[in-house]
Amino acid sequence: MKFLISIVLFTFLQSCTQNHQPIKTTSMENEAKNNPYYSRTAATKLDISNDEWRKILAPDLYAVAREAATERAFTGKYNEFDEIGDYYCAVCGHHLFRSTSKFSSSCGWPSFFEADKDGVYYKKDSTYGMERVEVLCKRCDSHLGHVFDDGPKPTGLRYCMNSISLEFVPDSQK
Ligand SMILES: [Zn+2]
């Protein structure tokens, strides 16, 4: 009898362990395994030097996010993309946009009319002889793109973003 109980108990414990295994390994951790600062839940402000980011980020992401380069128009993966879900900072995982604020614009970069107010902040940008407003990630200070006042209602804004600075997560994966 004791033996039987042990077997039942052992089987039960084993099935528990098996059931719990997929929960421990989330896709978030998989994607960010080489980036210790990446988190879709932490809001703590990061203060990481560019020397450190250079070791972590892919060169094309580093150029846009840390040196304010712009990806070529019509080349980004989210330019013509309309799935339902959320957009996070590709550098640190901070929430930036909801897909319901994305609109189809002909400018060649993914465009949104509204950002997560806790996701981004703004800086005046006078480079290249233009007066523009730069959009940056509130958590890691990475460059995301610019915001213009020729967007659709209800805000009239057009957040013109670099696809490479964004990471999309569909609702179906949550
Ligand atoms: Zn960020």
Question: TL;DR of this structure?
Answer:
Belongs to the MsrB Met sulfoxide reductase family. The protein contains 4 helices and 9 strands, in the order ααααβββββββββ. With 174 residues, it is of the alpha+beta class.
Topology:
Layout: H1 2-24, H2 27-31, H3 50-56, H4 59-67, E1 85-89, E2 95-98, E3 102-103, E4 111-112, E5 120-125, E6 132-137, E7 143-148, E8 158-161, E9 166-170
Antiparallel strand pairs: 1-2, 1-9, 3-4, 4-8, 5-6, 6-7, 7-8
Bound molecules: zinc ion (ZN).
Tell me about this structure.
The protein has 4 helices and 9 strands. With 174 residues, it is α+β, with helices and mostly antiparallel strands. The protein has a single domain (2-173), classed as Metal Binding Protein, Guanine Nucleotide Exchange Factor, Chain A, CATH 2.170.150. 29% of the residues are buried. Zinc ion binds next to loops.
